[in-house]
Amino acid sequence: MRIILLGAPGAGKGTQAQFLMNKFGIPQISTGDMLRSAIKAGTEMGIAAKKVMDAGQLVSDDIIIGLVKERISQEDCANGFLLDGFPRTIPQADAMKEANIHVDYCIEFDVPDDVIVDRMGGRRVHPASGRVYHVQYNPPKVEGKDDVTGEELIIRDDDKEETVRSRLSVYHEQTKPLVHYYEQTAASGDCEYFKIDGTKAVEKVSAELEALLSK
Ligand code: AP5
Known about the structure:
- The chain is an alpha/beta fold.
- It is 47% helix and 15% strand.
- The chain has a single domain, classed as 3-Layer(aba) Sandwich (Rossmann fold).
- Strand 5 and strand 6 (131-134) form a beta hairpin.
- 33% of the residues are buried.
- Monomer.
């Protein structure tokens, strides 16, 4: 099962990726998490990426495509994977096609911008696992702590309202065209395309995804 999760920043891709990963036993490939690991490790690429990410812009296609191809070639992706945050531009989607990386499903999370801005202010993350919480809509069992490890949750550097607004405008300009791209891919029979209402409660979105993908 090879799945693309498509949607604006904060639409719930990472939250549902954790659910799908556990449900279907396939790895989550989050380009955002990969970049944040590179930042933490202090690599040259990480240092360059941090400036771009803090400004709410996109990291160059070449870097991202290289990272994803390398990750997909690993053994744990043999039976499928979840792409979370990739592709994000038409050249990234084309690169996947050229590399013969076929996907079975493209799932779009539809959430209006004002809901996104509200959500991001309350997001808390556990960087080591990628688990995501919200202080109000998806709170951890113990305030400020990860449910599994008990470690401290953090606020992402790019969750400031100003940066979120830049990320949303980048989404509309550069990523939204992928909706049409994958609708056309689906029309030619090369994948299935589902659009889901990402404003519903987390568990309702999970249940809808499970129903769609279990068919
Ligand atoms: P990345 O880490 O991929 O961020 P993003 O796509 O902007 O997505 P987010 O992680 O912000 O949101 P999400 O949809 O996963 O939502 P979440 O589940 O956390 O990318 C960061 C940066 O890296 C980019 O800006 C770019 O610079 C760079 N980058 C990454 N990939 C790249 C690429 N391919 N090309 C170029 N550059 C790239 O949910 C958000 C909040 O809402 C949480 O608090 C959650 O608990 C809550 N929530 C989730 N679902 C619901 C719900 N149904 N109801 C209420 N609250 C909910």
